# Entry
Amino acid sequence: MKEYSPTIPVCQLDENNYFVGMTVADLDPLNTNGNYLIPRLCIIADEPELKAGYIPQWLGNVWKYIEDHRGETVYSKQTGERIRISELGALPNDVTTQAPLPYSEWSEKAETWIEVSNADELRLLDKRKDAGMLNRNQILTQIELEHGENKEKLVEIAERELTGIHLIKVRNAIMEAQTFTLENDDIWQFFTDTLDIDQDRLFRLWEEAKSNY
# Structure
């Protein structure tokens, strides 16, 4: 009588015929002709080659290799948004594995992120935002110390140099505002244009006012 191995290796698949791993099928003890009890979702086939970045899928008579980027982080070419890949298959054309640079946009021609034309303006806007908030006494005291111009003098300069709604906003800020921010365009322009305070100097002045008062 022919002897059969008590087990044979079989390939285990998932519901979509993707390779999961190897297991074994046991010889049927009630059958003497070499019949094996094949577990559910298993097939008798050669173990597929394992390739980095791919998963084997059984097509009925041959293995096909499908790109597998599950768990990888990619970035939208339109928005730079982080996206976590959860589906099998090739990466969509509208994403890239390159992380976006600050103040950049995707260039299909260069196949990389390139700095936008107004990057310097955006950097400055972010720097103004990051400068935070000061109360009125903090900034007015620092300006008076550095420029010798007290609150009344600043109002006089504003009334002489500014007009319309810009004047009203600046004058009200100097006289009544509880807080100042460099995000405020009227205040920013008054400091940099009207008082002619250099931008870098203004940021230093702002930080000194935070720490001193």
Notes: The radius of gyration is 35 Å. The first strand starts at residue 7 and ends at 13. The chain has a mean pLDDT of 95.
